[in-house]
Structure to design on (175 residues):
């Protein structure tokens, strides 16, 4: 009876593991596609600002109070950080099931993804503020009026939660 229970448990674990690995592979492909699409779309949009693309690509970049070149630089930095985050997520998902779910390699890659995602949210929120404040101070103009979108705060909160979940995964791997 004990051997039967062990065999049944092993079979159930194998079924769960193969399902988990299959889902991780699908998510990995989705992360790679999302990251690549974001990078390509941003590059295409930035190139169309300089006149490239014409009828095929049209870009709308709302610079807000930023000069267009600073808005374009911000968009490029955000695209690079987002692409790097999606690559780390894809690499993490590629590790799932090789040696287990909460291996050090898996949690390390998830922590990198979470950190890059958090950095993206911080740059998205802080870079325009710093640039506008710096340009305003340099020109000696009136005080800077800043506004924040609620979506930025939510993104920052979610990114911080991802990082805390990554730390939880680290602790789970250690145990």
């Amino acid at each position: 009876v004990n051997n039967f229970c062990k065999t049944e448990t092993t079979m159930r674990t194998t079924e769960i593991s193969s399902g988990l690995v299959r889902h991780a592979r699908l998510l990995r492909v989705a992360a790679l596609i999302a990251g690549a699409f974001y990078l390509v779309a941003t590059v295409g949009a930035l190139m169309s600002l300089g006149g490239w693309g014409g009828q095929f690509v049209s870009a709308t970049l709302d610079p807000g109070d930023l000069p267009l070149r600073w808005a374009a630089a911000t968009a490029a930095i955000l695209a690079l950080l987002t692409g790097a985050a999606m690559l780390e997520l894809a690499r993490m998902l590629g590790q799932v099931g090789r040696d287990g779910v909460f291996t050090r390699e898996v949690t390390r890659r998830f922590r990198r993804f979470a950190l890059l995602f958090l950095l993206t949210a911080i740059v998205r929120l802080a870079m325009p503020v710093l640039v506008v404040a710096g340009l305003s101070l340099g020109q000696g103009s009136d005080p800077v009026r800043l506004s924040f979108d609620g979506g930025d705060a939510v993104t920052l909160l979610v990114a911080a939660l991802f990082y805390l979940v990554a730390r939880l995964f680290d602790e789970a791997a250690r145990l």
